[in-house]
Design goal:
Layout (H helix, E strand, L loop, with lengths): L6 E12 L4 E13 L4 E5 L6 H9 L6 E7 L5 E3 L5 H10 L1 E4 L11 H11 L4 H14 L16 H14 L4 E5 L7 H16 L3 E5 L3 H7 L2 E4 L6 E3 H5 L1
Parallel strand pairs: 3-8, 3-9, 6-7, 7-8
Antiparallel strand pairs: 1-2, 1-4, 2-10, 4-5
Helix pairs in contact: 3-4, 3-5, 4-5
């Protein structure tokens, strides 16, 4: 029996309108891809080909300029994320779709262990158990225990990235989006992250990822989707016409 993709992206395009300058800046163009449970699809392409825009379109940080993004939920419902309601998107983010970016965003003065535990608490996990799991994940990411109870605001870039990864991986989402998750990490921590991602794959998580190094694509990807640089569009009026 053929496996069904839980995510189907068809003819996705994203353009940014600079109204004051009368310009249309293309980002992603005519992207088609599928992501399967227990499998990693890697997005590759030169800088400017819109890899991050695709991930942000799926997570609904951006609305696409055209195309469809069909996601099959754990209940078997197929939702087009392009026109889903804000409530549906928030529920999917809380329960099924995770996104690890290159940057850590969190509330001021929130402790590191609370930040990592938050996705579990949102799923209804007992706070004490969630904190225990967060501490285990932080230890795996080699974040010193003395830092767990303070805000990561003053952490180094690499430490913040490890906290971000810990928060993103701990929830074990059905669909995990990764935007260069190892870009700021040393070789040893990268190997740790690769092991955690492989474990999620074994547990059935579907993963769509952008990696900083092609070696990681060759090491981890089950499928590779190559994006081409978009063609520049002239003016807004010509685009609308």
């Amino acid at each position: 029996m053929n496996q069904q993709a839980i995510l189907n992206v068809e003819n996705f395009s994203k353009q940014f309108l600079l109204h004051e300058q009368g310009k249309v800046i293309p980002s992603s163009s005519h992207v088609n891809l599928e992501v399967y449970s227990g499998s990693l699809t890697a997005l590759v392409g030169p800088t400017g080909s819109g890899k991050s825009s695709v991930l942000k379109g799926i997570y609904r940080t951006y609305l696409p300029s055209s195309g469809s993004i069909h996601y099959t939920t754990s209940a078997g419902e197929v939702i087009n994320l392009v026109d889903a309601t804000e409530h549906q998107i928030l529920e999917l983010r809380r329960g099924e779709i995770g996104f690890v970016t290159q940057f850590l965003h969190c509330l001021p003065r929130q402790t590191t262990e609370d930040i990592v535990a938050q996705p579990l608490i949102q799923k209804g996990i007992n706070p004490t158990k969630a904190i225990d799991a967060a501490q285990t994940m932080l230890a795996a990411m080699k974040i010193p225990e003395r830092l767990w109870g303070i805000s990561p605001a003053t952490f180094s870039g690499g430490e913040k990235q490890r906290v971000n990864l810990a928060r993103g991986l701990i929830a074990k989402p059905r669909l995990l989006l990764l935007d260069e998750p190892t870009a700021s990490l040393d070789a040893a921590t990268t190997d740790t992250v690769v092991g955690l991602i492989e474990a999620l794959k074994q547990e059935g998580t579907a993963i769509l990822a952008i990696f900083h190094h092609i070696e990681l694509v060759e090491r981890m990807a089950d499928r590779v989707v190559a994006l081409e640089p978009p063609v520049m569009t002239d003016s807004i009026s010509e685009k609308i016409a």
